[in-house]
Design brief:
Cation_efflux_TMD_sf, Alpha-lytic protease prodomain-like, transmembrane, disordered C terminus, 218 residues
Length: 218
């Protein structure tokens, strides 16, 4: 799913005008779907929709960080990633808490809403993947963004599978099962982002300290 992309935003210095435009469109689509799935997930009682919204949030943040920190220092980019990771972790914990609540309450989500939003999410990811398809053979950062968008469709298919399971069993456990797995992946991705950002901040601090020491020595 999205674990491949949350920590690999395209390098600012390598974003061409056309690629920047594609990233802006991808950002808008992913941010829109994040809001849509959060609202629909809460309204329908579907934890898996809320969990899939995390995926869209991660992607939107990924593209946003790529676009908004153009030309900034490594430290500022790392700080932005740290905030992104912390926010993702907070959403992941919220989804898990919501899942536990629905488990205790015996909630049966609305399968029709899950299916409709799941299809819309799948279409959104296909559009983004098609938009970024031209950059699939670019540098590693460009490839990572396209692969990320392509693999996100797995999460959408998981939601559709959960919707089918809810419809077939008239029970909420398929939704809760998928939501737990997706939220766990989101938390894992958030932990990786935070760990990587902290390493970059530590390295940047060491680099600054080294330069200062060298200057003092001279």
């Amino acid at each position: 799913m999205s674990g491949c992309c949350h920590g690999c935003a395209p390098k600012a210095t390598e974003v061409s005008p056309r690629f920047r435009k594609a990233l802006w469109i991808a950002l808008v689509i992913n941010a829109g779907m994040f809001v849509t799935e959060i609202v629909a997930g809460v309204a329908s009682g579907s934890s898996s929709l809320q969990a899939d919204a995390l995926d869209f949030f991660g992607d939107a943040a990924n593209y946003g960080v790529s676009l908004f920190v153009l030309g900034m220092s490594l430290r500022r980019r790392a700080l932005a990633s740290l905030v992104k990771g912390a926010t993702m972790a907070a959403f992941g914990i919220w989804v898990l808490a919501s899942t536990l609540y629905h488990l205790a309450a015996g909630t049966v989500p609305e399968a029709a809403v899950m299916g409709a939003i799941g299809v819309a999410a799948l279409v959104a990811n296909v559009v983004v993947a098609a938009l970024l398809y031209a950059y699939r053979d670019g540098d590693s950062n460009m490839r990572s963004v396209w692969i990320c968008s392509r693999n996100d469709a797995i999460g959408n298919l998981a939601v559709l599978g959960a919707a089918s399971g809810v419809f077939a069993t008239a029970a909420g456990w398929p939704d809760l099962l998928v939501a737990t797995g997706m939220a766990a992946l989101a938390l894992s991705g958030a932990a990786q982002i935070i760990r990587h950002a902290r390493a970059e901040l530590s390295g940047d601090a060491v680099g600054v300290g080294g330069e200062a020491a060298a200057g003092h020595h001279h």
